[in-house]
Model the fold of this input.
Amino acid sequence: MRVRPRAEGDLDACAEALKQVHVADRYPVDWPDDPQGWLTPSGLLRAWVAVEEGRVLGHAGLAGVPGGGQEVTRLFVTPAARGRGLAARLLGTVREAAGEPVKLEVSDEGGAAIALYERLGWRRVTSTRARWLNAAGEPALLHHYVSP
Done:
């Protein structure tokens, strides 16, 4: 498995991997009409994929934050590839490319992701309510983290 910069030709495979994550975890909560566009949000600076034998197993992006700073965005690993350290490698790649501490946000429903971030030394700085709804139909509780 290797992590490399995402190429334009990777978007269909990334969308397929994202579909697997959505079915398993409801991430993103609502399936986008344009998954390739969702993977390329406004402010995206760079993105990476974790690939093995030509298959995309994970994805992470680095985006600029309005008002300054950078954040991890669109981070996911397919269910079948979990437990192999891919998310940690993707996070490390994003942090190294940023050259400064980065932020991320995660839904309170993402227990495994929260455990990973905290194990890697990320620090929760605040929590807020999202504009979108969680599985219970309520505004999702988002935790905001900063990298070590």
User: Anything to note?
Assistant: The chain has a mean pLDDT of 96.
